[in-house]
Amino acid sequence: MAGIGQGPFIAGNWKMHLTRPEARALAQNVVAAMPGLQESRIVLIPPFTVLGEVGAVLAGSDVRLGAQDLFWEDRGAYTGEVSAPMLKEAGCAHVLVGHSERRQYFGETDETVNRKVHAALRSGLSPIVCVGEVLEERESGRTTERIDAQLSAGLRGLSPAEMAGIVLAYEPVWAIGTGKTASPGQAEEVHAHIRRRLRDNYGNDRATCAIILYGGSVKPANSYPLFKEKNIDGFLVGGASLDAADFIGIAGEALRAYGEEK
Known about the structure:
CATH architecture of the domain at 65-233 and 254-261: Alpha-Beta Barrel
CATH superfamily of the domain at 65-233 and 254-261: Aldolase class I
Mean pLDDT: 94
Largest sheet: 8 strands, parallel, barrel
CATH class of the domain at 65-233 and 254-261: Alpha Beta
Strand order of the largest sheet: 1-2-3-4-5-6-7-8
Distance between the termini: 11 Å
Order of helices and strands: EHEHEHEHHEHHHEHHEHEH
Radius of gyration: 17 Å
Low-confidence stretches: none
Strand content: 5-15%
Number of strands: 8
Structural class: alpha/beta
């Protein structure tokens, strides 16, 4: 972990899952576990349809609410889209931007990621900006090339002060929903590269303080060795976040690794 006196940052992306009763029950279980996870920073990222339901459960707790996407305009004739001011009003503190599934299925580009990042920051939301390579890019030795391109275009125009509101998430696309996971060493190599790029572009202080999450089939069994790595500050959890015991277990294992480093 980067080691700036902050506990693990654990975000659960529920994707297109859960009805209102299911979402409420899962959120209640996570909130109930928070007394044992006090040094963790927990974010739940449900579908748009249950933001209000989950937000009501989280009210008064230390668990923050996030959204899965946003549009880059604040208002207008954009049928089917949701704006940053709407998410802010709904109680969101964070929003995912550039998730690999948005890139793969819905035409997200590095340029639209950049527009969405700026829109989120304008409304006081903290974007969780996702980067990562596909299997062919990894096998051909182009992982860092792809990461550099995503960072350069996706964060274009941001000042060091604005970067303070950004969370980054490295998602090896080949490890999402496949059961495969980057080894701790593979994940650390990319996380360290990202931090070096941040240092080059925004200075040492901003790079040191940056939160860089790992996402890619994270489970309780692999979260401890992953978090022990120097530059991994937490996790963007997919499927395992739909099971309260697994999600809480991931946070607990990361917190155990964090405690050993203090």
